[in-house]
Design a protein that fits this description.
- By secondary structure, the protein is of the alpha+beta class.
- The chain has one domain: Gcn5-related N-acetyltransferase (GNAT) (Aminopeptidase).
- Helix content is 22%, strand content 40%.
- It has 3 helices and 6 strands; from the N terminus they run αβββαβαββ.
- The chain has helices at residues 7-15, 59-70, 86-94; strands spanning 19-26, 29-39, 42-50, 76-82, 98-107, 112-120.
- It has a 6-stranded mixed β-sheet with strand order 1-2-3-4-6-5, with helices on both faces.
- Strand 3, helix 2 (59-70) and strand 4 (76-82) form a beta-alpha-beta unit.
- It binds coenzyme A (COA).
- Coenzyme A binds at residues 2, 48-50, 55-61, 81, 85-88, 90-91, 94.
Length: 135
Amino acid sequence: MTPSWEPLTFYEWLLSSFYYGFGAENKKRLHGFILIRAVDIDHEIITLCVEEKHQGQGCGKILVKTTQKKMKQGDAMFLEVRKSNVAAQRLYTTSGFKKIGERKAYYTNPTEDAIICQYQNLVAGAGFEPTTFRL
Ligand SMILES: CC(C)(COP(=O)(O)OP(=O)(O)OC[C@H]1O[C@@H](n2cnc3c(N)ncnc32)[C@H](O)[C@@H]1OP(=O)(O)O)[C@@H](O)C(=O)NCCC(=O)NCCS
């Protein structure tokens, strides 16, 4: 379960040069998106979601891979994920993320621990483009 963000919050994030993201679309319909906050060499996945009817078709993996390709060599990416979110954990593990810690009772509604994961980009990348997202 992901937090429900207000549209205005998204809008403010996307106006900031610290945020960037990618959408996955097919025939001009958005099926999923990823939003990242990047400060210097550290990137953090703020949210990632795929429309329910399109889950399990590789969309989430493509969004993560696209982001990784845009990272520069030596950049790191972090995220938190609910302990019960098996689908997301599988996606992150198969995308090269490693568990580096836990945060007790990090989530509310329902209360749950978070697993913290890190991905270290060791290969040369293109460098991220901060304004790839369009509203
Ligand atoms: C998590 C989420 C983004 C995954 O996107 P997706 O497009 O369904 O994932 P993919 O089809 O690209 O699958 C990626 C991997 O996860 C696995 N996976 C996907 N759904 C799964 C499920 N329900 N149970 C177990 N594994 C699952 C796939 O088998 C695949 O593994 P592989 O690389 O070994 O083949 C999507 O389920 C979602 O939007 N969930 C709700 C929001 C959420 O939880 N976001 C993450 C917050 S941290």
